[in-house]
Amino acid sequence: MMPEDEAENLLEEVGLKELPIIPMEICHRLNITYREQPLKGIDGMLLVDHRIQTALISVNISIGEQSRKNFTCAHELGHYCMDSYSQTEFRCSREDIESYRRQTKPIEVRANLFAAELLMPRALFKGLVHSRDPDWDHIKELATMSQTSLLSTALRFCNLTDHSCALIVSKDRAISWFCPSGPFKLYIDMDSRTLSPHTIAAIVFDGHNPSRGFEVIKADNWVSGPGITPDSEILEWTLSMNSYGQVYTLLFDEDGIGGAGEEEDQEDEHSIEWEPPTFHKSRRKT
Q: H or E segment at 14?
């Protein structure tokens, strides 16, 4: 069974049908002990004792954001539902809980997919995504509604939207990984990974504050592909650097320069599986 199906079944079992989904409440309904305590080198832990039919989920008390605690707890619930039959102890790092990359341990990727579905159920979330343009204001609004982290909400948005957009996560002036929406057909260069100095993201690493909104930049600073010329443009909205030294960028292919009808997808280990809409020109920063 797919992780998303497992999460859907759990929500049905515990009878939760409205946002926000609070994973600690699920622990209570399943008689799983939940604790926040100091954890050295990890963000979350699950211990299961089948002999006495008990389980403990621990989340690192040093995590500052409640939304990240929620996702960490949901991640461990994923291990409980899908993996505890063959393993009774799970110790998960921040990288395990944040990553969807293919080279990450498959068991951790499954737990993340489970957590995303549990906290942002497709049945409740898809309509909310479809009624919103792809921008950080709307993603923050959805994060508040679901009490989830900005990163996990942005990933979920890209997974569900019909817009041609992509989330890019950078660190140390280089692309760490990216997540395209289904209609996004452009190729994001991961060969060098180094950010073009002409991107807003690079300017943020230089210590400057980004504009609050989309800015028009030359598309070849980020992407390549059929139809991309030196004059092609794309919209970039980059946020200020977060406390983990990461920079989040949202690209929007407003003009469909990637080609709405192309079938080939980016075959990149850093991407995640997910008819360009009309985007109001007034949203652009010039």
A: helix 3-14
